[in-house]
Every structure is written in C-alpha cells, then in structure tokens.
Amino acid sequence: MPSSVASPTLELAEAIQAAKREGRRVLSLSTPSFPHRNLQIQQQQISAAMAPSEGDVECRHLLATALFERWRASQSEIVLTSGAKAALLCLIATLTTQRSKVFCFAPAWPTYFALADVLGRAVVVLERELAREWSIDHPDLGKLSKDDLVFLSNPCNPTGRVYSEEEIGDLAALTEKHGAWLVLDESFSHSADADTGFSAPVRRLGDRVVVVNSVSKNYSAQGWRLGAVFAAPSVLKTFAQVQTALLSPPASPLQSLLPTILEQPLDQGALGKRRSEMYDHVRSLGFDCTPSRGSFYLFPRRRGLSRAAADLRARLGIYLLDGSVFALRDHDFFRLCVLQSEEDYQAILRSLSEL
C-alpha cells in the first residue's frame, strides 16, 4: 500500500512540469489531458453569501438529476460537497470511529488510502485479480466489523471495470450484514459505455450505502470542485454538520455557475471508441489487459515494466503510474489514460512499443 499521504498523480504532474522547464521531452501515459475551459460570464449576478450547509436547493436539484438519476434521487436526498475528495474525507469522519477499518479494493485510487491515513483509520487492502476480471467477490470481506467502511469506485479507477447492479447489491447486502458501510464512488458515471446499462435505474440499497459523485470528471471541469453525496436522511444530517465544521460548504459562486458547467457533459460515444481502439492496440503489442467499459483508463500489464520505468523516464521521457501506486503487489501494471490531445494520443500509441 502506498505509504505517503501525498498524491502520486500530483507528484507525477510536478515531475513532468520540472522536466518541461528543463526543456526535456515529456509524455505522460497515466494522467488525462483535459481541454481548457473558460467561462464567459456577462451581466450575471453571482452570490457571495455563505451557502447553506446542505447546498443551494436549485443546485441540489440540478445535481440530483445530472449525477444521481439512476438512483432516482431528489434534491432533499443529497448534500453538496467541494468535490469527491472532500466528500470522501467527510464520510470517513462521519461514518467511522477510531476503531473502524477502511477496506479498499485494489487496484484502487490512492486517495482512499491517503484520506484514511489522515484520519488515523487502519486500511485493509482487498487485492483483486486480472485473471478474475477484477471481481469484488473477496474472501476477506468476511472480516468486516461494525462501522467499518468499504470504498468501491464504479466505474473503477484505474481498471475501467463497470460493476453490475447484481454485484453491487451482493456487496451491499454483505456490508449491511456486518453493520459496515459501503461507499460507492461514481465519479466516472458519465464515462461508462452505453451498453453497460450503468445509466439505467437501479434499486435502492439501504441506509448503509452512500453514493458519491462529482462534476469534475463528468463535465471535464477539473478545477470545479463541486460534487454531492446521496445517502439516508440520518447520514446526510450528520454529514452536512461534519463538512461545515471541517471544510465549510462549497463556495456560493461555484454553485451559482453550475448550470453553465453542466452544458458540456462528456462525449460517451467518442470516449468509448477511443478506449476500444487503445485496448486493441495494447493487446496487439502483447500486453495483458481486460476491456475498460468506463473511466478514462485502461490498466495493462507487461512483465518487467516496473523495473524499466526509471530508464523509460530518463531515456524517452515516458512518465507513468505503475501498480504499486494502486496498492498491487504486482508492480508491472500501469494506468494508461486515453483522454489525451490528439497529438499526445498518437505519440502514446507510438511509445507503447517501447514499454
């Protein structure tokens, strides 16, 4: 498991910027290249007042529809947050005690480990297997105790695996049996292929299941730190109080301008086509990989990759995040981002033969 609370993604970005300042060639295989968005605001009044602890009513209504439609959520069932990361931090503080453990399915977004570490919660890594198509049916889930917390990203960062309603339902039933919490991170909800059925209505899973979603990934607005939590009323009330105490509610101007951001969702069809093309390419080069059906990523593997990473960076300017970042014992995996500019995308295709 990563031992530092520092963000590996941000550390990689800083290393890339340092290399660029030195005039070196750089190609980042693991981080997305988002189009830069500027907002044209004309004659619009923007509130600068303190936002309500649960968020503006109209803003909650918009996000209930935009991000939680498959759960048939209403505005009264969500609380706005300053992005997914803030939501996850406050959920750990709200739902767990010092004795609680945080269970994470690896490969996992390393922020899960970092947030648990910041709050002094023990982490249990549930390592998934490529050979089992990253199944979440894990024997160590039997070790869950009351008020433990299970994190699952769906669609998964970094594998792109999309979990079915049946798989999620089985996991929710198991966590409820042990009196634990299940937190579903759906920050890549708009990136799922249409034929996965991810956007179809699903049944509600009980009071110990919490769903997190974010504007940033789904609307290509990385700097727009705005998301929401969908949960039972008893959870939301405490969560809003905890968030207000730790972070304050999301800034009013961010909420006021939300309708403008929501005008540009991800192009699911184009993203799915590029993921499929990249998958075919890495498979043709001999990488082990399962198809990605959501997120911006593939998660290929090639024997010896981790040992070669330093040389690839020094010799060819290739930067990547390997399996160690995502808490796998096998470091020869790496996160491969398909959301790139066309120039970088073509360069990445050429560079894969060097790995």
Task: Describe the overall structure.
The chain contains twelve helices and eleven strands. The protein has about 350 residues and is an alpha/beta fold. The chain has two domains: about 55-260, Type I PLP-dependent aspartate aminotransferase-like (Major domain) (Aspartate Aminotransferase, domain 2, 3-Layer(aba) Sandwich), CATH 3.40.640.10; about 265-355, Aspartate Aminotransferase, domain 1. A seven-stranded mixed β-sheet has the order 2-8-7-6-5-3-4, with helices on both faces. The protein has a two-stranded parallel ribbon with strand order 1-10. Helix 5 (about 165-175) links the parallel strand 5 and strand 6. Helix 3 packs across helix 4 and helix 3 (about 85-95) packs across helix 7. The longest helix has 17 residues, at about 270-285. The two termini are about 25 Å apart.
According to CATH, what is the topology of the largest domain?
A: Aspartate Aminotransferase, domain 2
Shape: globular
From the alpha carbons, calculate the radius of gyration and give it in angstroms: 20 Å
Largest sheet: 7 strands, mixed
Count of DSSP H/I helices: 12
Give the full name of the CATH homologous superfamily of the largest domain.
Type I PLP-dependent aspartate aminotransferase-like (Major domain)
Arithmetic mean pLDDT: 92
Question: N- to C-terminal separation?
Answer: 24 Å
- Please identify the structural class as seen in this structure: alpha/beta
CATH architecture of the largest domain: 3-Layer(aba) Sandwich
Helical proportion, percent range: 25-40%
